[in-house]
Amino acid sequence: MQSYAGTLLLVSHDRTFLDNVVTQTLVAESASGGGTWKEYVGGYSDWVAQRPHVPAQSANDTKTDALSARSEPRGAPAARAKISFKERRELDSLPAELEALEREQHEISSRMSATDYHKRGADAIRRDRARAAKIEVELAEKFERWAALDARAGTTS
Questions:
Q1: Rounded Cα–Cα distance for residues 4 and 106 (Å)
Q2: Are residues 65 and 45 in the same domain?
């Protein structure tokens, strides 16, 4: 990639990879910018250092309330001082789980894109389609959980 002269749009959840590879970061500033995209110089760590401070949540922000309600156990205080040991372990394991799911998704997609895929039979095609749909749901859930845990962990440092 270093010798490539053009522009490459890269989407990844691997922060270390982003820090080591990208020269600019494009971020959706939905919380503070009303759904706009903003460009930052550098990788993930550079964005964290440059990003604007997000003000406290407004009372009418129902979408954020709904996400918080799903990630917080019932009866838990709105803002915790720390995330639990179990949550920390979950947060630390999520990147590897996401990577495995994305790898499986890519393998299924590659298999389904083959010119002779139709020869595999209807049952195999149904299994692949069902698994691909399940992976989509699992990825969305894990990314949402990761964001919730990461936000809570980030408020404690």
A1: 23
A2: no
Which domain covers residue 23, as residue numbers? 1-55
Q: Are residues 82 and 142 in the same domain?
A: yes
The contacts of residue 76 (CB under 8 Å, 6+ apart) are none
pTM (two decimals)? 0.47
Unique residue bearing structure tokens 């698994």: 131
Instruction: Give the C-alpha separation, 131 to 57, whole Å.
Output: 37
Q: Convert the pLDDT of each residue in 66-117 to its tens digit.
A: 445 454 444 444 444 478 889 889 999 999 999 999 999 999 999 999 999 9
CA distance 46 to 51: 8
51 and 98 belong to one structural domain: no
Specify the amino acid at residue 96. A
Same-domain status, 23 and 76 = no
Residue 35 corresponds to which tokens in the numbers above?
């759904």
Other beta carbons within 10 Å of 81: 7
Say if residue 56's pLDDT is above 60.
no
What are the DSSP E strand ranges found in 74-114? none
> Which pair of structure tokens corresponds to residue 111?
């298999």
For residue 52, which of 43, 40, 61, 65 has the smallest C-alpha distance? 40
